[in-house]
Amino acid sequence: MYLDVQSVTEKAGTRKAWVKYAYSEVQTTTNGGKLFASSVTLEAYKCKERTVAIIQEVLYDKVEGGKVVQSVSIPEHRLVFEDVVPDSLSEAGLNFACNMRLPAR
């Protein structure tokens, strides 16, 4: 998991960040059986509530880029925030994004 620190923003108590996941084994999508080796997601974190939602996800056939296998976007008014799972990659992303000091804008 790689969180792009330059992408972290905050608006109305919610932080957003782009996160890349590179898998050691090829993964299969749940809706159509497409194979992918990495994904880049735009994640939203409600720090105080310790919840996370995925805003956008792009799946790639290779670890370093490659062809887009699938791309999904969810409008922000339809986001479903869920509790982060303890000791998970989502919790690591939330902890990092929420604890980092943002530059003054």
CATH uppermost class: Mainly Beta
Q: How far apart, in Å, are the first and last alpha carbons?
A: 27 Å
Q: Residue share in helices?
A: 10-25%
Number of helices: 1
How would you concisely characterize the structure shown here?
The protein has 105 residues and is mainly beta.
Keywords:
105 residues, mainly beta, Lipocalin, seven-stranded antiparallel beta sheet, 1 helix, 7 strands
Mind explaining what this structure looks like?
- By secondary structure, this protein is mostly beta strands.
- The protein has one domain (2-99): Surface-adhesin protein E (Lipocalin).
- Helix content is 10%, strand content 48%.
- The protein has one helix and seven strands, in the order E-E-E-E-E-E-E-H.
- The protein has one helix at 89-99; strands at 2-3, 9-11, 14-28, 35-46, 51-60, 68-73, 82-83.
- Strands 1, 2, 3, 4, 5, 6 and 7 form a seven-stranded antiparallel beta sheet that branches.
- The longest helix is centred in the C-terminal third of the chain and has 11 residues, at 89-99.
- The protein is globular and about 40 Å long.
- The two termini are 27 Å apart.
SSE layout and pairings?
Blueprint: E1 2-3, E2 9-11, E3 14-28, E4 35-46, E5 51-60, E6 68-73, E7 82-83, H1 89-99
Antiparallel strand pairs: 1-3, 2-3, 3-4, 4-5, 5-6, 5-7
